[in-house]
Amino acid sequence: MVSAAASPPPSGKPTQDELKRLAAHRAVELVEPGMTLGLGTGSTAAHALDRLGDLLRAGALPGVAGVPTSLKTEAHAARVGIPLLPLDAASIALSIDGADEVDPDLNLVKGRGGSLLREKMVEGAGARFAVIVDESKLVPRLGCTGAVPVEVVPFGAPHTLGLIRGLFHGLPGFHARLRTTTVPEGEQGSEQQPFVTDNGNYIVEMFFDGGIRGDLRDISDRLLRITGVVEHGMFLGMATVAIVAKKDGTVAVMERK
Fold it and tell me: What does the pLDDT look like over 118-173, one tens digit per residue?
């Protein structure tokens, strides 16, 4: 079910960052006093954190606290005055987070920023999950616009990468690689090293020409059966509502069927 939000469009053509803010602020309208929230990670979720901080300082949301999905979010939330709780001490009523891709069934690709494991743990523990995006994130199938990340343990990571490649052997247009980041190397310039998550793990990036075709849950299960894989960035059946800021400045609310 899709319903147009009542929010009027801003004057002029909104920028992508303004669209992210629109979606985030609309999601924060779902927050009620006393709620414990799952606090997402990324540029769109950051707008929700800022808005929550404003409302908390104004006394509009007494008793609200949050569980962060990354070290970056933990620092941001503390900076704007959102009280924090550990996951094991929280009963999460609502999570608010962005996504890299949203398909018509509200399945998601998340974690291109590297926080997929904590995001999935927190958002999977909550009663509701509102995903906030601008309409550029809407796709016909997952994997259309970029990498589908897989978090793997560092030990034997090249071996695990090979197993992931083997899972999709013969699939036209598929390739996978270990995500790297550039680090300074003193006077010698810089070098590429594996990207390391908040959990001390590595990320394998999977690419699919034209997106993932086939049974997503079966693909998920086969990935998770690979020893060395910790988790992947397909969030299947987890989002309960998508709040989508459109190019004309209106906001649509898409509820999972």
Answer: 999 999 999 999 999 999 999 999 999 999 999 999 999 999 999 999 999 999 99
Q: Is 119 annotated in the active site?
A: yes
Distances from the Cα of 123 to the Cα of 26, 157, 205, 220, 239, angstroms: 18, 27, 22, 17, 8
Helix axis angle for 71-80 and 43-57, nearest 10°, is 30
- Model pTM score: 0.92
Instruction: Please name the residues in contact with 30: beta carbons below 8 A apart, sequence gap of 6 or more.
Output: 94, 96, 128, 130
**Residues 213, 154: Cα–Cα separation, whole Å:** 29
CA 196/CA 193 separation, integer angstroms:
9
Q: How far is CA 22 from CA 16, 25, 108, 154, 250, in A?
A: 10, 5, 20, 38, 8
Q: Which residues of the chain have pLDDT under 50?
A: 1-9
Of 18, 32, 101, 119, catalytic: 119
Other CB atoms within 10 Å distance of the CB of residue 162: 12
**What's the distance, Cα to Cα, between the start and end of the chain in Å?**
7
Q: Measured between alpha carbons, how far is residue 246 from residues 8, 45, 120, 234, 237 in Å?
A: 11, 17, 26, 24, 23
- Predicted pLDDT of residue 257: 79
CA 138 to CA 78: how far, in whole Å? 31
Q: Which residues have CB under 8 Å from 247's CB, separation 6+? A: 13, 14, 19, 134, 135
Give me the pLDDT at residue 189, please: 65
